[in-house]
Design brief:
Strand content: 25-35%
Shape: globular
Helix content: 10-25%
Number of helices: 9
Number of strands: 29
Radius of gyration: 26 Å
Length: about 550
């Protein structure tokens, strides 16, 4: 057996990765902030309702948030904290208020695959929604096939929308669900409203090739749009296509309803699609305890809402205003450099209703140099250390990438009928890898099924397991740089159509479609006759280094 040659460039690249990894953990501690994982907003282990929130700093020390509960419940108390620092008890107000307005865009599938929708059943369900919605909910109507058509803008009378829905005629065009959902979200984002929701009436078929599930999720999160789906399968065998609508609903806090064997959604269930739109409310909290003594530009606020059914919590990242040290006669102080320009995204209405707790007195800055504070010299020194370590890690990491020598290695051969495919996200022209067999291993070493010659990838980085039910589960093999699905780090995750998968710095799209636009893997006839080897020069573009 020959021992592999260890080159200086390889040693340097390994050192660069270790330095960058260490800096990732050192920097938050140097800033005096607690590093916390960020995941999906979920209820706490003790029970309660799932919680979603969007927050912004409208004034130098005023945090404002719009929060929603998946199911309406009476709010009894709210707590807010940043790391180990508890904020003074927030004030909150339930939604809706007399001034509130919720914008809802009804998106009706009129493509060739949606003939039965335009024929009647979806239109009947739209009528039920219009009748059940409260007055502060304003509706609009749009149709989609290969293009989106705005039939009635948000704010039209419900009679106009009802009549317009009856006039929708089916087309024989393709179904571009993801692209038109993105366009619908853009229309909602431009509509003045306190809350926004998109209702999709479709069979779930998505024939897009350049737009994906994660694109819609990202756009909806950025615009504060909740997506709800009403699914009507074309046949019992095609109910699997409804997973598209189900995932869009679940991952944006919406509701999913599916038709039964008769092709109808139970009439009494349709109004439940409106639940959650009027739950929760808005809150205000004082950020002063966090702003004193920190140079951080962003922190994560943990919100915990206590309701009549339990409690729910989530973490929300917020950007802090720029601040500079200021000395006063009484000691150290901090004040904003400039207020944020224009109103930041956030709730439009809050009041001064106090929670059933006693507000703690505002913390006063301690004298300069006393425990719990830092003087300007110490702040600048800490800041210099942060910048120095971060710059060194960045240069080392980049230099390590450039010094890698491209090598191509062989590997074991996957066999069997492909279950799915992994397509290079940033370079679809590189081909795609067919996932076949019971277990597919991914990593940098040559004994993997998919070899990625990239120093951000561990020797044995991850595996894809094929389950008895046909599911494909991505498992992290304790890799240094982890595994991400839809931009969230996971230890194990069941993959779904259109998922974004990141192995180190290499990004893929996951699909089960055998007739996608990308050809099988480079140098193969079926994408599985040899191991795909991704070389460094193929991947440099993913880091913006072309």
């Amino acid at each position: 057996m020959r021992c592999p040659m260890v080159t200086p460039g390889h040693v340097w690249s390994v050192f660069a990765r270790r330095l960058a990894h260490a800096a990732w953990w050192v920097l938050p501690g140097t800033l005096g902030l607690t590093a916390q994982a960020y995941g999906d907003p979920t209820a706490s282990a003790g029970g309660g309702e799932p919680l979603r929130a969007r927050c912004a700093v409208l004034e130098p020390a005023l945090l404002t948030c719009d929060y929603r509960l998946a199911d309406p419940a009476d709010v009894r108390a709210i707590q807010a904290s940043v790391g180990s620092v508890a904020l003074p008890p927030p004030t909150w107000e339930a939604y809706p208020t007399p001034r509130s307005m919720t914008a809802v865009l009804l998106l009706l599938d009129s493509s060739g695959s949606g003939k039965q929708l335009a024929a009647g059943q979806a239109v009947e369900d739209i009528n039920v929604l219009l009748e059940a919605a409260p007055a502060h909910v304003r509706f609009g109507l749009a149709t989609f096939d290969s293009e989106l058509g705005l039939v009635a803008p948000v704010g039209e009378s419900r009679t106009t929308i009802r009549d317009a829905a009856r006039q929708v005629k089916p087309t024989e065009r393709s179904t571009e669900l993801y692209r038109n959902a993105l366009e619908a979200i853009r229309l909602l984002a431009a509509t003045p409203a306190d809350r926004r929701a998109l209702f999709i009436f479709s069979d779930g078929a998505a024939e897009d090739r350049a737009y994906f599930h994660q694109d819609v999720i990202t756009a909806a999160d950025g615009a504060g749009v909740v997506v709800s789906g009403c699914g009507y399968p074309r046949s019992p065998a095609q109910t699997v296509a409804l997973q598209t609508l189900r995932r869009l609903s679940e991952e944006t806090g919406g509701v999913f309803l599916a038709a039964d064997a008769s092709g109808r959604i139970r009439r009494e269930l349709v109004p439940t699609a409106l639940r959650g739109l009027d739950s929760g409310g808005s809150l205000r909290a004082d950020l002063s305890p966090v702003l004193v003594g920190t140079l951080a530009s962003q922190v994560r606020v943990r919100l915990t809402v206590h309701t009549s059914r339990g409690e729910a919590s989530t973490q929300v990242p917020i950007d802090l205003p720029a601040r500079v040290p200021r000395l006063t006669a009484g000691g150290g102080d901090l004040e904003p450099r400039t207020p944020p320009a224009g109103p930041a995204p956030g709730p439009s209405t809050v009041n001064s209703a106090q929670p059933p707790t006693t507000a703690a007195p505002a913390a006063r800055p301690a004298p300069l140099g006393s425990p719990g504070t830092r003087d300007s010299t110490g702040s600048l020194l800490s800041y210099g250390i942060v910048v120095g370590v971060g710059t060194a890690a960045f240069i080392a990491l980049r230099w390590g990438w450039w010094r890698r020598a491209p090598r191509r290695r062989a590997g074991p051969t996957p066999s069997g009928t492909p279950h799915a495919y992994l397509t290079f996200r940033d370079h679809p022209d590189r081909g795609r890898f067919a996932v076949a067999g019971q277990t597919v291993r991914i990593g940098r070493q040559r004994d993997n099924d998919l070899v990625l010659e990239d120093t951000s990838v561990s020797r044995h980085h991850a595996e894809i397991h094929h389950g008895p039910d046909g599911s494909l589960t991505l498992v992290d093999l304790d890799a240094l740089n982890g595994v991400f699905v839809n931009e969230r780090q996971v230890k194990s995750a069941v993959l779904g159509e259109g998922d974004s998968v990141e192995i180190g710095d290499v990004r893929f799209f996951f699909t089960r479609l055998p007739d996608g636009p990308n050809k099988p893997g480079r140098g193969t006839s079926h994408g599985m006759e040899e191991t795909i080897v991704a070389r460094p020069e193929d991947l440099l573009g993913q880091r913006g280094l072309e």
